[in-house]
Write a structure and sequence with these properties.
9% of the residues lie in helices and 44% in strands. The chain contains 5 helices and 28 strands. It is globular, with a radius of gyration of 20 Å.
Length: 358
């Protein structure tokens, strides 16, 4: 999942939105794990074209037995297919200004199963956050929200606008703090802040990385980010650094992981004119994190060599590597770790059957 939507301005609101309430703490409980440069089992995968009628997906999510495809060019933003036989099951979630319509939607950031029903968090910037019930939405043929949290006041909108990803955790929201939306911010390392909706009050800030302060917030940009509702951990991979972190949101403890003990040459990233990058996207299951990375390749090299999918467990242990012949935009993994799905740069989709690597 990548953060695509940009909002500019609102400087006064962004500064004043969380001044009231109890004293806030800045938590910096960060450790570093440098994974050794050892030989990892590699698997070369050849994919099959998926016969979905989706064109130019902007995000994908595999949950339970369903494939959810986001398409921002359509009136219906979410298209649902069966993972069993690729049958299209329905479409819903309209764009617009109506009560159950969304304005600016950032894609799939969180999903979970509760009481046998699939819930998907929907963020419509800057109006509301809602919990979409996938099962009821398919039955009704339209978006059905079990819960909806409106952000109508100026201060509440400012809290929403300065974040480009929000996670519902219990009765609170954990909101990432987007550096390009917060005035006078000097530390661009990824950080998150608790928000109590019922009190309209912000809580502690959690910093998840402690890298040097580089000249541009873009250098800290996410390649992918995902929150696992079952284990309470959030994973964030960096687009322009050989680095990802796993944050335990309950304790505030973050482990930043440097693959193969290879620190990024930031000057090379800044000065490269051919689009040097690392993580493109990530996905996860309850057992593993799947990070799609170009491993510092330029755009020219990416087209020639395809992409790697590095697999880690939630403790940061490197499990294996999948080599794909394709460049990709988005990534999803079937919950049982048996299939991998990608969106290609030409707008098509492929599936890859995963070997038994456990």
């Amino acid at each position: 999942m990548k953060f695509k939507i940009l909002f500019l301005g609102f400087s006064f609101l962004l500064l004043s939105a969380c001044r009231s309430g109890a004293e806030k703490k800045e938590l910096n409980n960060i450790s570093t794990l440098e994974t050794p440069d050892i030989e990892i089992t590699e698997f070369k995968l050849l994919g099959d074209t998926l016969p979905y009628d989706a064109l130019w997906p902007t995000d994908i999510l595999a949950v339970d037995t369903f494939m959810l495809v986001a398409q921002h060019k359509d009136k219906d933003l979410i298209h649902v297919y069966s993972l069993k036989d690729t049958t299209k099951l329905g479409s819903f979630l309209h764009k617009g200004g109506g009560p159950n319509e969304v304005n600016n939607w950032n894609g799939f950031v969180q999903s979970w199963i509760e009481g046998g029903e699939i819930k998907v968090l929907v963020q419509s910037y800057p109006q509301f956050i809602a919990v979409l019930n996938l099962n009821k939405s398919l039955n009704m043929g339209s978006a059905v929200f079990d819960e909806k949290y409106s952000f109508n006041t100026d201060s509440a909108k400012a809290i929403m606008i300065r974040s480009n990803a929000v996670y519902k955790i219990g009765d609170r929201f954990l909101m990432n703090r987007a550096p390009d939306r917060i005035a006078n911010l000097t530390n661009y390392n990824p950080s998150f802040q608790w928000f109590d909706y019922s009190k309209n009050e912000c809580g502690d800030i959690i910093y998840a990385m402690d890298q040097p302060i580089y000249p541009s917030p873009l250098l800290y940009m996410s390649g992918g980010v995902a929150y696992n509702s079952n284990n309470g951990k959030l994973c964030y991979s960096c687009r322009f650094m050989n680095l990802f972190f796993v944050l335990d949101v309950k304790t505030g403890q973050s482990v930043q992981i440097i693959p193969n003990n290879e620190r990024t040459n930031i000057n090379k990233v800044i000065n490269d004119r051919d689009g040097l990058s690392y993580s493109q996207d990530l996905s996860f299951t309850d057992k593993y994190i799947y990070i799609a990375t170009y491993n510092g390749m330029t755009q020219t090299e990416q087209k020639e060599n395809g992409i790697r999918i590095e697999v880690y467990d939630w403790d940061g242990n490197h499990i294996c590597r999948f080599l794909l012949p394709d460049s990709i935009y988005y990534l999803a993994v079937k919950p049982d770790n048996s299939m991998l799905y990608v969106v290609l740069p030409d707008g098509g989709m492929k599936s890859y059957r995963l070997p038994d690597f456990e």
